[in-house]
Write the structure tokens for this entry.
Amino acid sequence: MTDSTMQQNEGKREVTFRVHRFNPQVDTKPYYDDYTIKLEKGITVLRALNYIKEHVDPSLTLRAFCQAGICGSCAMRINNMSKLACTTQVWDELDKAKEPGVIKVDPLRNLPLIKDLVVEMDPLVGKMQHYSNWVESTMPEEEWGKKEFLVSGEEFLKYDKATDCILCASCVSECTILRANREYVSPAVLLKSYRMNVDTRDASHDQRLADLVKDHGVWDCTHCYRCQESCVKHIPIMDAIHGIREDAIERRGVKDTSGARHAEAFMDDISKKGKLVEATLPIRTNGVGWTLKNLLPMAVKMVIKRRTPPPPPLVKASKGIETFREEFREMSGHVAKDHEKQSGE
Ligand code: SF4
Ligand code: SF4
Ligand code: FES
């Protein structure tokens, strides 16, 4: 090989893209195709996939538009993490690849698959409609267009970061609750709902909040932080989720929400036994009717697999429970005092 050829080859590598394929018109189940191409350093995953589509396999289906991290349409799972293909460098992914030289590409999760790397966004849009993710103007209609409807800089700061969302659905794809329950409101919708609820020009706050605390709403979030970790715009989604919860407790009271009832049942178990009595936790949180309707199929599966949690009489208190109870009482006393202090301020 000559020096000039070696120089040309520097920064070039053969890369294999292991791409998820599924065409519902001909395939009965998904499979992977390997495409090996020679690439230069500096190429994004989107450019590489477009190259494959143009030069190797025109049947490969993906969605993209702006190619600049703005429109959100090229979100997909690259090496098992949802991200934008147009802002993801092939070289960075090679460093993370499980199999040397192989980059795995899959469609987003938690949304219905249309074809190859393209998912259906309608369920997300439907949730945005359900939770009224728009500003319902408090300005009388006759004044519309005649004057500006301003917010102060200070007010805007409360939702400034949330406005960076490009609705790419990466957080939706990574949400752990959505993996188990597709009806869950979803992190992107919670973020938008928060943004609307803190907007002083909006008139739908109370109705939106009432919807958010219902089943499949804000209290179902498990605080796993996966959505925030995967957000392509580094938006602190958890701040929005905490914000909605605090607002719900403040305006609607603690007993109103299943989340608060869950926390109460949790504390009760811990104070008495030092551990959770899992078998009855859903009933104490959401009642018998809800539990039968929503968890019966899962309970049957658990019985079949012999994975049912023990019934309350068989849950023995943890070792050292007496010391723990004392500490728990002391801690609860401090918390009660803090609350008294805060409400007196
Ligand atoms: S923190 Fe909540 S919304 Fe975010 S991924 Fe986890 S369960 Fe989903
Ligand atoms: S919150 Fe972040 S990850 Fe989720 S849709 Fe918006 S930009 Fe995408
Ligand atoms: S193509 Fe628009 S964000 Fe990637």
